[in-house]
Amino acid sequence: MVLADLGRRINSAMSELTRSNVVDEKAVDNMLREVCSALLESDVNIKLVATLRNNIKKKINFKELGPNVNRRRIAQKAIFDELCALVDPHVDEKGDGGFKPRKDRCNVIMFVGLQGAGKTTSCTKLALWYHRRGFKVGLVCADTFRAGAFDQLKQNAIKAKIPYYGSYTETDPVVVAAEGVARFKQEKFNLIIVDTSGRHRQETELFAEMVQISQTVKPNQTIMVLDASIGQAAESQSKAFKESSDFGAIILTKMDGHAKGGGAISAVAATNTPIVFIGTGEHIHDIEPFTPEQFVSKLLG
Ligand code: GDP
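^ thats the input. predicted complex w/ guanosine-5'-diphosphate below
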């Protein structure tokens, strides 16, 4: 089930509850059954759905609630809060895993992800996002594996008017990454975004290369780019990336398409990592910051 339908199903389950004359345990159970099956059909992990269900049940404990409380409002709030909790790993933004680049230092962000996830596109989108907020941003193409990768990044960068670095001759991505970062650091850039190569599968070689690049450029943040439409595969894929690259943030792409989204939601929980931005289209401006409350509000319309 695509995200828009998920929102509609949850909404209609909630309106059903609102319409019923007596909001008792049975009515709440009916609503919960509908909400949970909608989440499962959207590929949200079964354990997460069970936790959500238990938490909501605990919050709407009618035996403990007094006679004058607004049961509908309590039920609606419980659902809203638990849906937020589903996409919120509660990681302290300012802690070591903090994502936000600061203008008073040079921030290096490294991108990882499978081929086709939307890495190169998202690098440019993020670069432009921060460029428009006053950062001096440079893009480095450390993908020497895919023919045409540098040209793609270059075209995007030119369109966005972002300085870029790459090589047509150097075949070692670690060397290109190191040179690019060093160049931009020397020129006092305060945000350097490094695009790495993606591949079709989770290959050992790819992970080894990622680790080497990371050890060389020492990023302040590593972002995994995840295609929201890949369903349940998102969970295992992001776990594998987490083990080798230890990314601290996720960009979820293709949220404009027919994304089920549930697999990606489960990836947040599986890796305990926040989604920081979502990609909402193919153009360089199609990026939005992600916050759990906004996401759930939008989901529920
Ligand atoms: P990479 O192999 O991970 O670097 O992926 P690319 O950046 O080349 O993107 C693969 C395809 O996905 C391209 O056709 C992009 O235009 C498209 N794409 C990337 N992000 C989005 C998005 O948020 N929405 C849509 N609809 N397409 C996207």
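The mean pLDDT is 89.
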